[in-house]
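Contributing new records

If you add data, match the layout below exactly. Sequence lines come first and carry their own label; structure lines follow with theirs. Keep one chain per record. Anything else will be rejected by the validation script.
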Amino acid sequence: MATMHLRIGDLVWGKLGRYPPWPGKVVSPPKDLKKPRGKKCHFVKFFGTEDHAWIKVEQLKPYHAHKEEMIKINKGKRFQQAVDAVEDFLKKAKGKEQQHSDGKGDSKGKKTPNKPLKILDEDDEDLSALKDPSEKPASSMEPISKRLKIIEEDTGSTSIQAADSTAINGSITPTDKRIGFLGLGLMGSGIVSNLLKMGHVVTVWNRTAEKCDLFIQEGARLGRTPAEVASMCDITFSCVSDPKAARDLVMGPSGVLQGIRPGKCYVEMSTVDPETITELSQVITSRGGRFLEAPVAGSQQLSNDGMLVILAAGDRTVYEDCSSCFQAMGKTSFFLGEAGNAARMMLILNMVQGSFMATIAEGLTLAQATGQSQQTFLDILSQGQMASTFVDQKCQNILQGNFKPDYYLKHIQKDLRLAISMGDTANHPTPMAAAANEVYKRAKALDQSDNDISAVYRAYIH
């Protein structure tokens, strides 16, 4: 049988699916873990997480040889923490090696070489051949829900937080409940793709039926109406554009409400106002259904990558039933209590994001108007306290004139409008949001509604 240069204990960069390369260590697989069908792969424990997975040979690179390259292309606090964990590991290993050379090792000074890992073939049945006798056995793979961090807060909210979606999403145990999904827009498409990829049984519906074709090819089933999807499925998710669309989907002709029976679950993922959530919750539960709101913080790219943040509220048992779904689509989910709380929190978050984006656009145009380099402005910004992937990506898109939607401008303006209304209801001033809202309204008047939120920049230059 052929062998590789990689050995148990070697440090690597492992790439899982569409997720970025992550630092890890080749380890022995648990004895009770079945080998994957792939002919060539290694079992990798990822740094900065509690997770491990089989990684194909072609998705592995030696750690040291590619360290500088990976650090340049990958950003983020979690990634840096993982790299720091590798460096700590190397320091400790160097210390042990020093102790060994000082006389604590073999009297002859010989080192036992690591065993090379075998390439797994389809007819290989004995994984124990891969085991390094000197290494402690790895724990068996636990159900994904047991490897999550559960955080209880004083407010009564709960966070189910994946240590690292890069590795976790590769080993989700999908629920056996039948899943329905209504709405295949920018966010919904990525969510459904990840649900299918992680093994969920999904029935889809979209107002424009052609959008369903791709997902049917990926294994989804087709529902003819929202009512049919709700009647066929145990849990039905929806993700549409605004409060009116959310209401129509439930209470309109052939709507979800017609398919709701006692025990059926409905999860509203659209970003809407608390009043809409209260109304939907009441009509669903009046039919014996169970209701959860679960709007998501993120973008099309984060949706595609399965890295959304889910804010949930309503029926706690539905939240728990959706565990594998939320793990497939997001990196973190929070349970915020009674229905309406998630809508309130989501509007606040989007109010801040929308206002911030408008301010960044204002800064870029002011830099240009005063003879300053916009690129230098971005370079300085990226080195300061406001540095983030969001700032870098949005600014680079503006400078390149690329306004392909990652989150529609018309939707962030809708969220600002709803947040301002929520502030009025609470008798709380929102002057910054109100000012930003006017800028987005001007951008909409300039035909930027279906562009990315960064197209608010154009409101300042026309």
